[in-house]
Amino acid sequence: MTQTVFPPLDRDEELARLAAVTKNAQGAGFQVLGLVGAQAEGLLHMLPGGVRERLEKATVSALEYGFDAAKRSRGGRIPDGSDWLTRAVTLGTGAAGGFGGLGTALAELPVTTTVILRAIQAIADEHGFDPEKPEVRAACLRVFAAAGPLDDDDDTDLSFLTMRLTITGSTMQGLIAKVAPRLAIPLGQKVAAQMVPVIGAAAGAAINYVFTAYYQDMARVQFGLMRLAEQTGESVESLALQMKAKLAA
Length: 249
Known about the structure:
This protein is mostly helical. It has one domain (about 25-249). Helix content is about 70%, strand content about 0%. The chain is built from 11 helices and no strands. It is globular, with a radius of gyration of 17 Å. The N and C termini lie far apart (about 40 Å).
């Protein structure tokens, strides 16, 4: 991959910009909750007990399938789409997932996860990071450790920025095992929203659009901070804390 040369960034301006992107991402879920007429914490209780118990395993499978499929599609030189095109694709998969109730909602998880992971990899590339490198692959998965668009806790949204992910050998198993429990919560909320009678397809489309936009924004925060860290010599952890202060202000 050709090394991209980026112009110098104004540190404070870039932190303020990334704080604004984070704020936009954090406010994305309320339209979905309004559509399904539920509170975020109540969505998971709408799932049958057996599904809640299997959700983490389903999330691991979706991540395993999604990361490899996304990598193959980009390796095959299929052009990266725009943010809007990616959201339109997941809007369609979400509608299909919600149309048939629980069965189709669960079957749709790996497909949507693949599309979002592909977008995250493209955003890493956009910031000058090679998604083939182990540390960048870990950073792509770390984006999925963010709390999710239906969680209004700013701290859990931002905790993914400093989450330690140990790369084990040449596989992603260790990373996926750490990320899956966190991602299972928003994915469970998504599946529950798609099960709402009558409006399941509409809810599936809306929630997929919101989820995709959210993780695209958080990927830009993740890789924006990494690029700023490379330029300034500061740690991502330190820059994330400073960005959080700007977000609070």
